[in-house]
User: Fold this.
Amino acid sequence: MGNIERVKTGVPGFDELIDGGIPKGFNLLITGGPGTGKTIFGLQYIYNGAINGENGVYVSLETSTDGIKNQAMQFGWDLDKLEKEGKILILRIPMDVVKLDLFSAINDAIKKINAKRLVFDSLDALAINIDMFTIPVAYVGSRNRITYTGKSRRRITYLVMNELSKLKTTNIVITASSQDEKQITIDGVSEYASDGVVVLKSLALGETTNKTLEIKKIRNTKVNGGINSYEIDQNGLSLFGN
Assistant:
């Protein structure tokens, strides 16, 4: 649509469905159950950016740095090499630091490598550990912040999505899907607070596993809708026919 600048994910077959890429500065939510490839999608996005001149930060609240690198290497993505070259920074968020200033850490990482892309993995892990973090709720002047001190998972999810949108990076945000048909994600908030929503599903039918991708929305984008089949092989995630 129009002259909107877009960021290519590098996922074969996906960018063609969304006018060529994610609108620059957007939060694209990737949601799905275990084993659907959410993290792979995020790693593929960061890797393809780094090898094409757009540095990226991968924020992990669950998997260790080595675990992320090992998972990426299964697809031939050498994150260790790219990290040494200053093209990628894996920000492993510790779970033993009480009231960690999460967004100061993220901002420092972005500035360190002049990142244009970011993956946040994941909102559901954040919600489980909300007592560990300090999240801004408002700003007074240019430096002073009022931080959230409550315990509402839905509220903190909204605040995190709001802060991510201020980073001036183009973001993939990962979260778990809901078993409740009335909402898409486990928190029921992030699908409304994000600029775009992609749902990954995996259904076992006998010895066959059927994986599907559905783009629920992306603002300012003409979406080629419907349900698309995808696969995960030695090259990563790709839509069928690509």
